[in-house]
Amino acid sequence: MNILETKNAPGAIGPYSQGFEVNGFVFTSGQIPVDPATGNIPEGIAAQAEQSCKNVGAILEAAGVGYDKVIKTTCFLSDMGDFAAFNEVYARYFVSKPARSCVAVKELPKGVLCEVEAIAVQ
């Protein structure tokens, strides 16, 4: 097992790793839309979806893979009313259309609107 760590994605805010590589798979932790350079959270679902996807991409890059190697994502939204706007951004990153679950949750860390995690193959 190899722990993934990059300064190009936000550091863990709890007792977990940004990701793991194991047996040819890459697992990312859920990424909320925190800008790793500033710690800021953008306003609105489109900007937050963009940052969450970029954060996932940074962890994938640390493992030496890209979005095209993602086989499964799990997406969390604080409001299903944001589903269409979230999908518009998500589709620009995950163009290979991996399997996906997308659920609404009561609340996300730091009050953000979305969170994205991924599983990829090497």
Topology overview:
Elements: E1 2-4, E2 19-22, E3 25-28, H1 45-62, E4 70-77, H2 83-93, E5 99-104, E6 114-121
Parallel strand pairs: 4-5
Antiparallel strand pairs: 1-2, 2-3, 3-6, 4-6
Largest β-sheet summary: 6 strands, mixed
Number of helices: 2
- General shape: globular
Strand percentage? 25-35%
Q: Reading side by side through the largest sheet, how are the strands ordered?
A: 1-2-3-6-4-5
Distance between the termini: 13 Å
Q: Which secondary-structure class do the elements indicate?
A: alpha+beta
The helix content, as a percent range, equals 10-25%
Order of helices and strands: EEEHEHEE
The total of beta strands comes to 6
* Low-pLDDT segments: none
Report the mean per-residue pLDDT as an integer.
97
For the CA atoms, what is the radius of gyration? 13 Å
Write up what this structure looks like.
The protein has 122 residues and is of the alpha+beta class. It contains 2 helices and 6 strands; from the N terminus they run E-E-E-H-E-H-E-E. It is globular, with a radius of gyration of 13 Å.
